Amino acid sequence: MGLFSLKETCSCCGKTTGFNKFKCKNGYLCPDCFKAARLKGLVINPFNTTGEELKIKLEKFNSKMDNFKETAKVGNYISFSDITNEVYVPNMKSEHRFIKYSDILDFELIEDGETIVTKGGLGRAVAGGVLFGGVGAIVGGVTGKKKSKHTVKSVKIKITTNDIKDPIVFITLLQKETKKDSLIYKNSAKTAQEILSRLKVVTSKDYSTKPEEVGQAKISVADELIKLKTLLDEGILTQEEFNKQKEKLLN
């Protein structure tokens, strides 16, 4: 038995691995388990990860995915669930993440390693046109102290979560040098605005009240309407989105 054996048993699912097997800490993984792990962004270290550990991770991920009810999605970058009150961020370079709305502490737009706009300044940026320039591009150097660049190498959204072990989640929108007047950059800018706006909306809500305590909630409908009106005025919510949320509250 060994690397070239056809009779090895997968340490994760128990099936025969066949020839195209992959090493793990306590034996080998079959191609199906290895592929499933890669598709879910689960990191497999052949020296530290056992088949049993991978099996638990896969079951945990599948359970979360089954419970996650997508209500909105921005490309393949991020999905939102207003039913489970969480976001799902796929990331092929690391483990995919499920993040509760209430666990999102902060988020920011980063261009070439420099923060362009943060959660606190998003409303003003969108309303004032700071997030986008005349050609529909993300403006570098909001303060105006730096000269405007004609190209950009990376555009990311950084989400800070209430997870002490792994607090940072990156959403990469662009990772190659691109001209700011190009269609690729403009699409990245549009995607960035949509993601940031949705993050602003979901983090503006109060999730401290448990479902069974809804009837005892201290926040009134009037307070919620005021919040929604503020988001509308700041340009974060469209009129259609505002009307939809308003109708839900009043009903």
TrEMBL record:
Pfam families: SHOCT. Residues 223-250 form the SHOCT domain. This is SHOCT domain-containing protein. The lineage of its organism: Bacteria, Bacillati, Bacillota, Clostridia, Eubacteriales.
